Amino acid sequence: MNSRTYAAVMTGLSFVGLAAILYLMSLKSNERSTVSIETTIPVLGNLSEFNLTDQNAETFGLSDLEGKFWLADFIFTSCPGICKDMSANMSEIRKTFRDEPRVNFVSISVDPETDTPEVLSQYSKKYDGGDRWHFLTGDSAAIQALATNDFKVGSGDDPLVHSPHFVLVDPEGRIRGYYNGTEPDEIDAIKADVRALLAESL
Asked: Around 127, how many Cα atoms within 13 Å sit in the side-chain half-sphere?
């Protein structure tokens, strides 16, 4: 092999080596990117199956939300305190994602004896509830257990003393975030996290 041929071969090998290095660097970069998305919005818990009744007097449960991202809260329609603010903020978030069918909303009454499907239907209209915002009622003990044991926002003995938190749930029924539903900064955080999860799922 003469010197010219040797130089050509070495140059070719150098390019191949450089290409391999760049390829491996791109894999590492993608790996870091994936880890960043997953660890930014961690899994905080898992929900078990539940079945309640919605504002249309139809059975509605966790299986109906399969494949959806959804935001949940616990309210009651005669609430003299934070519920109005929570529902108004939920309505605002819903409007932000009105064109995104993968995002749903769930409000569960902690006063099911008062909040019949008819009452919840009227309450829904006040906040432009729409077809992807589900207002749920049912057995009082079951709802209290759901709030306390699954969503981890129950207040104990008095269900009417309820949490101000919104709970973000992914399509697999896993809790991905807790947010104060009365705080503007937290509402912005919800929107950002929902967008991140939607992007992650593409």
From this structure: 26
Question: Residue ranges of the alpha helices (H) in the chain?
Answer: 3-40, 83-96, 117-126, 140-145, 184-201
Residue 26 domain boundaries: 1-40
Q: Are residues 19 and 68 in the same domain?
A: no
Residue 199 has pLDDT above 70, yes or no: yes
H/E stretch holding 191: helix 184-201
Q: Are 77 and 119 in contact (CB under 8 A)?
A: yes
Mean pLDDT, rounded, for 92-121:
97
Q: How many CA atoms lie within 13 A of 20 on its CB side?
A: 6
pLDDT bin (cut points 50, 70, 90) of residue 182 is very high
How many structural domains is the chain composed of?
A: 2
- Distance separating alpha carbons of residues 198 and 192, to the nearest angstrom: 10
Cα–Cα distance measured from residue 105 to residue 135, given in angstroms and rounded to the nearest whole number:
8
Claim to verify: residue 133 and residue 88 sit in the same structural domain? yes
CB 147 within 8 A of CB 159: yes
Whether residue 65 sits in one domain with residue 10: no
What token pair was written down for 169?
A: 């749930």
Residues 35-79: tens digit of each pLDDT:
333 447 999 999 999 999 999 999 999 999 999 999 999 999 999
